[in-house]
Specification:
The protein is mainly alpha-helical. It has 19 helices and 4 strands. This is 3-carboxy-cis,cis-muconate cycloisomerase.
Amino acid sequence: MTISAFQGATTVLDSVLFRDAFGTPAIREIFSDRALIERYIEVEVALARAQASCGVIPAEAAEAIATHSKFESLDLDHLRHETDIVGYPILPLVHQLVKLCGEAGRYVHWGATTQDIMDTAVILQVRAALDLVDADIAELRRILAGLAVRHRDTPMAGRTHLQQALPITFGYKAAIWLAMFDRHAERLQQLRPRVLVGQFAGAAGTLASLGDQGLAVQRALMRELNLGVPATTWHVARDGLAEAVNFLALVTGSLGKIALDVMLMASTEFAELYEPFVTGRGASSTMPQKRNPISSELMLAASKAVRQHAGLMLDAMVQDFERATGPWHAEWMAIPESFVLTAGALNQARFMLGGLIVDTDRMRRNLGITSGLIVAEAVMMGLAPHMGRQQAHDVVYAACRHVNEKGGTLAEALEAVPEVSAHFDRAALERLTAPENYLGSAPRMVDQVVGMRDV
């Protein structure tokens, strides 16, 4: 790799060092400069063909525009220079396309405005990016379903407020993660028809320059591009794109939750989970024993960044009159970065969860460190029919304090209480205080989530 490769990037999304930690080649390609310009050209060509089909411009002009409007023919240095002057890339692009198309050039960009082309090009990018996200979510759901089924009955400590609360199974935890992504898959299908809508409306959104052919051309253009037809102009109604980025914030938020769980469970004191072992991954420069949860850390960082962009997109919805003076430009930053970060986080999640190392023995040992206190609720509910719930609570509470202060197990402490031993012998108390006997409906919830999915 040449030194020049290290000199052009200024963010982790393009950095030679960091770009594959925070993104993927496929998602970067969708949002690359070349791809964006090609989408501009695609929209301009589709517009010419749509107008020809409606009789607005000559058919031969549309074919000439399609033939000669090629990315490879552009003077990119001049395009960049003129974009710096104009502030938008479409007029500079049109200048070059007009020259490239010869006599047919007079019909390039007929009746369109800059934002029509840029908005529709972005929607084409979003469509391609959502396809990648959709595929990643499907693969992640398959991985999570496998974890949930494999560990349906693997007991471990459930924790609330970072304290051991009640026994659960690791499969139950994985099923909760899975259910989130089942809902995200549903959300993605539901938002497509709302978001994947093209833009063609002219200077102030009224299509006035095309007379009575405006709406016909609009419909024809959307057919060319296989996009939804807008009910009204959305130059300043940005809820669709805001929804797309906020959807990504939900996805990465769920990834952040999973990452936090894994990082905590991978800590030395828990030692219940480990990210896949790869020689050197997560190594410390000074502490050879370290095995840091790198993928989880990257997922958590991405979730925070996308959440900020989601807020930016909501802020950018507040636009003035029929064409905004600034908020639109914020989308140019938020949309590509959000998709790149989301794809990167999903990629890290697929790697990490696909090779997750689950220490079931350590989970069981951790489950026993409270000497039975984790199932105090089970004992209370077992005693309640004999002495009432409140008295049972008080008896078990006192027994728990005894274990905390004097040691021993909860079963031993309860056996010494006459009100308890009158109803339960030692064997019954051992069964009552065995964590694996108090899993509730956790395994059946795994079954509900997984359902008939092929795992």
